[in-house]
Amino acid sequence: MGTGTIVGIVLGVIGALVIGGLLGFYIATKVFKKQMRENPPITEDQIRAMYTQMGRKPSEQQIHQIMNMMKSKGNK
Q: Do 10 and 29 touch, CB atoms closer than 8 A?
């Protein structure tokens, strides 16, 4: 085996690692965003609880407005 063959193998392995890392990052990002869209980090009940802890009675319109605001932030 010559030095040219060894260099080619090393460059091939490095290239495969870089491509694999980029592909893995892309797939993980897509899966994470999908999970956040389907299972938001906060629910309507949690929003109601926060309002009552602040001493306010939230209307359904306010709760839906906050949920829509969080969903729109998640889509970006």
A: no
